[in-house]
Amino acid sequence: MTNSQRPVEFNHVGHGTETVVQLVEGGNEPPLIIIHGGGGALQPFEPMKKQFKTRLWGIQITPTTPLHTISAQAHFYFVKIKEKQLHGPYRLCAFSASSILLVSLARIFEENGDRIIQLAFIDHFPTVFLCPEIGVHASGEHVIDRPMARERFIANSFRSVCDITRRDGGGTARRHELAQDLMNAFNGEAASDFAKTFFRTMELYLGAVFDLVIDMSERRDAESLMEGLTAWIKSLKATATVYIASNGVLGEIPTQHRREWWDLGVGRCLLDPKVVYLDAGHYDVLSSKKLIRDLQTGYAPVGATL
């Protein structure tokens, strides 16, 4: 049985059975629909629930979510969103590694003729998946040993998640314990049910990300993985805003590459991107008053009171 065929166990570890969940009731404005991070759960958005005054919906992975390809997952979310909000305009947002899933989802909405009035990426952008040393490893701009490259990509990505978790919130003892629990799950050692499910979910998701990045290059006959990925992202019509945490994903980029990757690669894809830097860690950025206000006013009509 392959990785994509093995089921993910969802037992009291944070995943529910409803794909689109109302987090904040708000008023009559279009809801901001935020996609889960790589772990698939909604717990990281608790700080947002406490501070938001406008409508906020969250998307989570459930037992019925297809995880074999990014395209299948995005189409599944499109259908589930349409069941709750048939007509636009739409406000879409991604946290962490779901950035590439948001691009796929936004393209589906746009191809369907729907209007996206807000497109936000929180502390991640798809190009990070090709960042030297932490992204997909390519030799001569193309992957030669696909199985080995996939394994290396998943391992590097998961180690980055653990590093980010360790640093978050100032590096508290609780964060260090959580990071170790996640690493134990990765290494096949004794770990909590939460850590095991988190790793299994991320393993499947990252495998699908790897396949998409490779396929983008091959399908578009691109000269490099980056060329294929950026061409795909550039096809978006909606204006994007990218929020970057000073001590989040940016902290994982090797020092020698920081100058080139200061914006997480956003400038490679967008002509006039709005990049907002926030003094925070990867997870505690979700508590940022600046982020909370920005997400609520980034689309709001003049005179709206928050």
Main sheet attributes: strand count, strand direction, barrel closure? 7 strands, mixed
Poorly predicted regions are 1-13, 302-306
Q: Strand order, biggest sheet?
A: 1-3-2-4-5-6-7
Q: Please give the domain count.
A: 1
CATH topology: Rossmann fold
What can you see in these coordinates?
The protein has 306 residues and is α/β, with parallel strands linked by helices. The chain has one domain: 3-Layer(aba) Sandwich (Rossmann fold), CATH 3.40.50.1820. 38% of the residues lie in helices and 14% in strands. It has a 7-stranded mixed beta sheet, sandwiched between helices. The longest helix has 27 residues. The chain is globular and about 45 Å long. The N terminus and C terminus are likely disordered. GO terms for molecular function: hydrolase activity. Keywords: Hydrolase. This is Alpha/Beta hydrolase protein.
Brief summary:
With 306 residues, the protein is an alpha/beta fold. It is 38% helix and 14% strand. The chain is built from 8 helices and 7 strands.
Which helices and strands occur, and which strands form pairs?
Layout: E1 20-24, E2 32-35, H1 46-51, E3 56-59, H2 70-84, E4 90-95, H3 99-111, E5 116-122, H4 146-167, H5 173-186, H6 193-219, H7 225-234, E6 240-247, E7 274-281, H8 289-297
Parallel strand pairs: 2-3, 2-4, 4-5, 5-6, 6-7
Antiparallel strand pairs: 1-3
Helix pairs in contact: 2-3, 4-5, 4-6, 5-6, 6-7
Keywords: Hydrolase
InterPro entries: AB_hydrolase_fold
Protein name: Alpha/Beta hydrolase protein
Tag the structure with descriptive keywords.
306 residues, alpha/beta, Rossmann fold, 8 helices, 38% helix, disordered N terminus
